[in-house]
Specification:
Elements lengths: L5 H4 L3 H13 L4 H13 L10 H15 L6 H12 L2
């Protein structure tokens, strides 16, 4: 049963939350519970990453380059890297 199993896709948010709660209540491994807790803390919507000025500048430059059509496909980048590595 994978994360994209149709049973999960068809669940409402409340049903999915309850399903997760029931599974967590059955866990007795403290290490796993600590790990799950750290995941939840990282994804807490009240905390977010604040970009530095230089990061914002790089993002803006990237968007500008994209809008000007100055893009390179992943395939082209990988081909160039492969060629460079084999030189």
């Amino acid at each position: 049963m994978g994360i994209f199993d149709s049973n999960f896709i068809n669940m409402s948010t409340a049903e999915l939350q309850n399903s997760i709660i029931q599974k967590v209540l059955k866990i007795s491994d403290n290490q796993l519970l600590d790990y799950l807790n750290s995941l939840l803390l990282e994804n807490d919507s009240s905390s977010f990453y604040a970009f530095n000025d230089w990061e914002l500048k790089l993002i803006e430059e990237g968007i500008s380059e994209y809008e000007k059509g100055k893009i390179v496909s992943n395939e082209e980048v990988f081909n160039k890297n492969e060629k460079w590595l084999n030189e």
